[in-house]
Amino acid sequence: MSSKPNVKELLIESSCEHNSKKRTPCNAPTPGATSGGCAFEGAQISLFPYADAVHLVHGSMTCLGSSWETRTTKTSWQGRDFTQMGFATDISVNDVIFSGEKKLTGAIAYIVELYAPEAVFVYSTCVTALIGDDIDQVCAQSAEKYGIPFVPVHAPGFVGSKNLGSRLGGEAVFRHLIGTKEPDKVTPFDINLIGEYNVTGDMWQYSHLLDELGIRVLSSLSGDGRVAAIRTAHRAKLNVIVCAKSLVSLTRKMEEKYQIPWISLSFYGKRDTSDGLRSIATALGDPDLIERTNQLIAREEEQLEQQLQPYRVLFAGKKAVLNTGGNKSWSIAAALQDLGLEVVGTSVRKATEDDRTKARKYLGENGVLMMNPGAEQAKLIDDTEAHLLLAGGRSLYTAIKKGIAFIDVNQEKKKSYGGYQGLLNLAEDVKNALENPVFSLVGRKTPWSH
Amino acid sequence: MVTLKTAASKPLQVNPLKLSQPMGATLAFLGVDGCMPLMHGGQGCASFTKVYLTRHFSEPIALQTTAVTDVTAILDGGDYSIVESIKNIRKKVLPELIGLYTTGLPETKGDDICGVASQIDCPLVYVNTADYEGGLESGWALTCKALIQQLTAETDQIDDNKVVLLPHVSMQPIEVEKVKDFIAAFGFQVLALPDLATSLDGHLGEKQAALSHGGITVEEIAGLADAGLVISVGHSMQASAEVLQQKNSFIRHLHFPHLSGLVATDSLVEQLLTETRFRHPPAVVERWRKRLQDAMLDSHFSMGQTRFLVVGEPDHLVGLCESLYEAGGRVSVAIATVNSPQLEEIKAEQVLVGDLEDAEQMADQYDLIVGNFHCEALAHRHHKGLVTRGFPNWEQVGNQLKNDLLYEGGAYFLFECANVASAHREQLEAS
Questions:
Q1: Nitrogenase/oxidoreductase component domain location, by residue (chain B) (predicted)?
Q2: B285-430, what's its fold?
Q3: Which residues of A are less than 8 Å from B68 in CB distance?
Q4: How far B172 CA lies from chain A's nearest CA (Å)?
Q5: What gap in Å lies between CA B385 and CA B379, rounded to an integer?
Q6: Beta bridge partners of B311
Q7: Is the previous residue joined to A287 through a cis bond, with omega within 30 degrees of 0?
Q8: Using the beta-carbon criterion (under 8 Å), do B69 and A28 form an inter-chain contact?
Q9: Residues B133, A92: C-beta atoms closer than 8 Å
Q10: How far apart are CA B358 and CA B288, in angstroms?
């Protein structure tokens, strides 16, 4: 039987709020007016952080040649970090005509011999999907031959967006890994972290707190993840989705099949981190754990408050405009508020219904939710006399024109803003931006033109 | 003794250096003013390319996609998605040129983009650049060829003052500018095709442009065939020069495999003197030649004790290796992304077509790496020095203004290599 997932089913995810309103899923991109990555990229984002597995991309050079080693997802895996390596079959005209399966089989043999990975994920891409290379069969045969898991990932770019690709990645893990192994031991406080990719070590900003509370991360999809661990994920007591709507399908299916409840939360900013820890404890339902969690939160918040005090003085009365996508539209807003800045507006153009509700909650009645930030943000800066713009690189010009400070939020970040301590990193960046004279100097008029 | 190996026996790429043809095509179209590069393929190819180039140049990159889906891949011969794309692009901006090029997906299903192009009534150049063939260099070169074939008007008039420069893809914006200026200093009017010097050189514009901003204009491309001289740099660009000559058989062609180091620059000067009535090159050129001579001597001690790994696109690789060789640098391993006749000329102990896994397996044979961002992890793991060159360089800023060519850039390049090599040796001794 083919392991190809039902794409339509994934698109009308019943656990998504917007699907109660929309009749048809909007998936088809508009030719000539499309931005954003493809399904393959989504699968790559959600699965590549498994550093103990080799990720073999079966396709032509664009897919991997331009995208390997782009995401700083950190791992504590002691072996070679395969996440930061690139493996591609680099198919040729010959393969396109006569099938690339032989090359794929050869590549797998080569990888197993030289790198001895814990597992191999095989990704189909547009061309190899179109010519009908059977990665299911190659994976099944290889698993039998080499005795390690082989996971076919059916997320060729042309089936849809990055978001869909992440779902497809989750689907592959659900079908081929979860439930295939029993854990050595179980505890009453075992959780899975789903959609936490540990970019710049975000996860490590709060994982030590979970440890301290006795909450065990049984497995993760896929930050600092291990293949052996995700195979035991069906024994967890709770699924925790971190900042990633796309994997709701996975947690819903795990609930249906393994009766594991799920919650969705974020670890950005003080309030979200505290709320997140509290909701995990509450969901696990142990009164003692809840009590200890509240104590830990009180301790951490107090310590953070002291560390933030000097920044609060600096940021008093400062206003910020935020223009970013998805859950960042409210999570970064919340973090900025925690630093004592006033967030006067945020973009909700790419946000889900749920994200918009949250953004409204954080910004309050007077906050502006921008539907068309490209056109709106300049005026908003004028109207509110904002001091800081946090946005993607494209908005830099707006900041320069207005002579206000700018922080690029969309660039692959080099440091973590997550958890309690990450807030200090954000505070330092905000401080540096506000103090930097470049934004007013660089836009200086030429002295010779009047 | 040079041995040329190709890694044909390997069924995959591990830590690839190789980049795709559509990416090369994207860059070439970005060297044309007011252009919207339109990649015919799945949306991801364009997205990956855009992010990649944005990070390398720290500049916004104009690029659109026909966003072929699994459904249109089957039902559409390309007509719908291309026509629809152009309609949607023109709703927002009016490009001077649409650069239409393919990826592997439409090539596999056999879209006839030439046929579709004939139905379009706005300025458009099309080129086939499947990503399962060639690489970055050929994608750029094929696009350059297509621009000439489809835009340049035939003529039999000659303007002896006019020179067309055809740079290879690895020449960074400032390098294109330096070569243009160098030739112009001999009294020529120089046009580069493509011209990244004025588009991706990282200049603060008035506002964020939706199209490529700067570069050679469509009108200038149309009028290229009255140039007295065409100068191609890099083997990949030779075919483009020949296509230009087909537009006007009176155009003379000078070809340079690269413009790195003393000997290659001397040969350019020599040819330019022959073409002009100049007895001497301009004073500033002579001054820079002396500075390069001095740089070679100043750096030779460090270079002479350094073994190099150099990786890159063939046209780039050949020049880098020559520069190092001239100052005594010992290139023990040179790795090219794809095969090219030029590789035979490289002065290195071993030359191969391969990836960074090959480089890693030979890690005991070099001290210093000249290569792209992906070499950083390799350098780190095996305690090698690194001079970052080539696509991509996501770690450092200022790539567009790094000049390694001619007398001037050659001097800076040698100093940088010698200094990094010395610092690296000291670090190794200290540890």
A1: 20-420
A2: Rossmann fold (3.40.50)
A3: 126, 158
A4: 18
A5: 6
A6: B335
A7: no
A8: yes
A9: yes
A10: 38
Among the ranges given (A178-187, A401-410, B352-361), the one the predictor scored with the smallest mean pLDDT: A401-410
Asked whether the beta carbons of residue A66 and residue B108 sit closer than 8 angstroms, the reply is no
Q: Could you tell me the pTM of the whole model?
A: 0.95
Q: What is the pLDDT of residues A233-242, one digit of tens each?
A: 999 999 999 9
CB atoms within 10 A of CB A92: 15
Residues with Cβ < 8 Å from A373, sequence gap 6 or more? Answer: A323, A347, A349, A391, A395
pLDDT of residue A201: 93
pLDDT at residue A31 is higher than 50: yes
Model confidence pLDDT, tens digit, residues B225-265: 999 999 999 999 999 999 999 999 999 999 999 999 999 99
Residue A18 has pLDDT above 60, yes or no: no
Strand partners, B163: B190, B229
Interface contact B67-A88, CB threshold 8 A = no
Kindly report the length of chain A.
450
The pairing of beta strand A342-347 with beta strand B368-371: unpaired
Give contacts of A67 with chain B, Cβ < 8 Å. Answer: 48, 52
Q: Which of B68, B105, B109 to mutate to test the interface with A (most CBs of A within 10 A)?
A: B105
The answer to whether domain B159-273 has CATH 3.40.50.10860 is: no
| Adjacency order of strands within the sheet including A216-222 | A216-222, A190-196, A238-242, A262-265
Between CA A312 and CA A318 the distance in angstroms is 10
Contact A32 B87 (CB under 8 A): yes
Q: What is the pLDDT of residues B360-395, one digit of tens each?
A: 999 999 999 999 999 999 999 999 999 999 999 998
To the nearest 10 degrees (0 to 180), the angle between helices A162-176 and A248-258 is 20
pLDDT confidence band for A24 (50 / 70 / 90): very low
Question: Is pLDDT at A6 greater than 80 in this prediction?
Answer: no
Count other Cβ atoms within 10 Å, centred on residue A49.
27
Residue A279 DSSP SS3: helix
| Closest by Cβ to A89, choosing from B12, B44, B73 | B12
Q: Is B422 exposed, middle or buried (0-12, 13-18, 19+ CB in 10 A)?
A: middle
Q: Where in chain B is the domain with CATH 3.40.50.1980?
A: 21-134, 159-273, 285-430
**Domains in chain A, please, with CATH?**
35-176 (3.40.50.1980), 190-299 (3.40.50.12380), 308-441 (3.40.50.1980)
Strands B13-14 and A87-88: antiparallel
- Are A160 and B10 an interchain contact pair (Cβ–Cβ within 8 Å)? no
Q: Longest Cα pair distance anywhere in chain B, in angstroms? A: 68
Cis previous bond, A222, omega within 30: yes
CB B88 within 8 A of CB A32: yes
- Chain B CA closest to residue A107: B11
Token pair, residue B131, equals 């990503």
Helix (H, G, I), strand (E, B) or coil at A94: helix
Q: What is the pLDDT of residues A264-291, one digit of tens each?
A: 998 988 999 999 999 999 999 999 999 9
- Spans of chain B, pLDDT less than 70: 1-8, 206-208
What are B263-271's contacts with CB under 8 Å, separation 24+?
Answer: B263/B322, B263/B326, B264/B319, B264/B322, B265/B289, B265/B292, B265/B405, B265/B406, B265/B407, B265/B410, B268/B182, B268/B406
| CATH 3.40.190.10 at B21-134, yes or no | no
Angle at Cα A283 formed by Cα A279 and Cα A289, nearest 5°? 80
The ipTM estimated for the assembled molecules is: 0.95
